[in-house]
Amino acid sequence: MHSPTPQVSLNTLINVLSSPAHALINSLLEPIELPLMHKLAEAGKPSPWMFFPTSGVASVIGRGAGNWQEIGVFGREGAGCFSLLLGSGQSPYTIFMQLPGRGFRIAADDLLVATAHSAELRTLLLRYVHTFMTQVSQSALANAQFNIGQRLARWILMIHDRVGGDYVTLTHEFLAGMLGVGRTGITLALHELERLGTISMARKRINILDRSKLETMTGSYYGFAEAEYQRLIGQPLSGREPSGG
Prior knowledge:
Jelly Rolls; 4-stranded antiparallel sheet; alpha+beta; disordered N terminus; Arc Repressor Mutant, subunit A
């Protein structure tokens, strides 16, 4: 990649672009508030925008047999509704903000014109798609082989990468939906993580106390996708270097 343009956005994908590519997409971006539960895309419906968050965290949701489960997350390191780049006019998944924030959006037609004019922009966004699919693949492996506590530890690490502080504010019910398990299982897993000294809990709030212990619990299922992001995008996914991989 070229040397990054001086920072004018908190979105990593925009920041790493060279001056010409940055100027091209910046002229087409529209700032937007991204409140809690705001939908960025709805499964099976046209996606008129691509979103670049600068804060907050978005959930990519799969649904089957009446249930829903998170299959991936992104925040200021990424972008949403990239099905547009892959020649699809609609997303197979619903995407909404699980933690509120801000960002930019670009109209679908403008995005396609911009990527046609800038090979650098097109390559960067396709590299990001690869890193996101790596994250999804690692999640599938972890879900198949991990217990609830280990899956929860990995999820906390992924959210920690994308927020500015050392805490996350979410309900047990929401966590149960994210992981596709029962509320009782989430409550027991949270208490076990607290007993191990990795987190502490207050009402609707998880405080991260010992990140290294959480990483140990997740083994190789945390760190690989994050390292792949750094390899291809040229920047760490967050300010925190993963120790796995």
